[in-house]
Amino acid sequence: MQVDTKVIPSDVLKRVRESVDANDQWRSHTVNLIASENVLSPAARSVLDSDLQHRYAEGHPGGRYYEGTKYIDVIETLAGEAMRRVFRAGWADVRPISGTVANEAVFSRIVPQGSPAIAHTVATGGHISHARIGALGKRTKNIMAWPMQDDGYTIDADAARDMIAKEKPSVVVLGRSLFLFPEPVAELKDVCREHGTRMLYDGAHVLGLIAGGEFQDPLREGADVLNGSTHKTFFGSQRGVMLTPGEDEKFDNKLDKGVFPGSSSNHHLFSLPALLVSALEVETFGSDYAKATIANAQALGAGLAKRGFEVSMAERGYSGSHQVAVDVAQFGGGKDVSARWCEQDIICNMNLLPGEPGKNAFNPRGVRLGVQEMTRFGMGPDEMDVIADLMHASVTAARDVRPEVKALRERFPEVQYGFSVADLG
Question: Which value, to the nearest 10 degrees, does the dihedral of the CA atoms of residues 277, 200, 186, 86 take?
Answer without folding.
Answer: -10
